[in-house]
Amino acid sequence: MIQVLDLKFKEYITAEQIQARVREIAEELNTKYSGKNPLFLGILNGSFMFIADIFKNVNIPCEVSFLKINSYQDTSSTEKIKELIGLNQSIEGRHVIILEDIVDTGRTLDYILRTVLAQKPASVEVATLLYKPSATIIPVPIHYVGFEIENQFVLGYGLDYNGYGRNSNSILIKVDE
Ligand code: IMP
After folding, report:
1. What separation in Å is there between the alpha carbon of 34 and the centre of ligand 1?
2. What is the pLDDT of residues 11-70, one digit of tens each?
3. What residues act catalytically?
4. CATH number at residue 103
5. Is 168 within a domain?
6. Ligand 1 within 6 A of 71 CB?
7. Does residue 119 form part of some domain?
8. What long-range pairs does 81-88 form, CB within 8 A, spacing at least 24?
9. pTM for the predicted model, two decimal places
10. How many domains does the chain contain in total?
11. Residue 142 lies in a domain
12. What parts of the sequence cross the membrane (predicted)?
C-alpha cells in the first residue's frame, strides 16, 4: 500500500507494461506519420512522462508543442476548464497528434479538440495513455489508447492527486478503505 496525502493506493499498471505499450503506440505512429512531419501536442501537466516516452520512441521527423490545461480538483473532474498556457505556434495545415494522460469525462479533450480544430490543422488524432470508458459524459474520438481502465482514481507516471504522486514510474489505483 502506498500513501499519497490522505489516500491509499496500490500498483495497477507496472512500469514495464507502460513502456511496452508506449513503444507499440510509437511504432504505429512511425508508420502512419512517415513523411507527414507531424506536430505532437502534449497536454500538460499530467502527460509529461507519456509525451517524453512517446517522443523518445518516435523516429520520424516531427515537432512537439504543449498546451497547459487544468480541470481536476481533488479526485474529481470539474466543468471549469482553465487554459494556463495556450498554443504558441501555428498548427494550420499540420498533422496534429494530441497526447493526453487520461480521458475521464471527455470534457477536457472536447475543449482541446475544439481549440485545435478552430485553427484548421490538416488532420487531428488523439493518443491517450489511459481511458475510463464508463466515465464518459462527452464522447470524443480517441485513436490510440494505452490502457482502458475502470472508473476509479489513479495516479503516477505524471498523474497527480492535488499535485502529489506524479513521481511513480507505475500507475497506482486508489484503494477504498
Ligand atoms: P476529463 O475532462 O474529465 O476527461 O478529465 C481529464 C483530465 O482530468 C486529465 O487530463 C487528468 O488531468 C485529470 N484526471 C482524470 N482522471 C484522473 C485520475 O484518475 N487521476 C488523475 N487525474 C485524472
Report:
1. 31
2. 999 999 999 999 999 999 999 999 999 999 999 999 999 999 999 999 999 999 999 987
3. 104
4. 3.40.50.2020
5. no
6. yes
7. yes
8. 81/107, 81/108, 81/111, 83/115, 85/44, 87/41, 87/115, 87/116, 87/119
9. 0.94
10. 1
11. yes
12. none
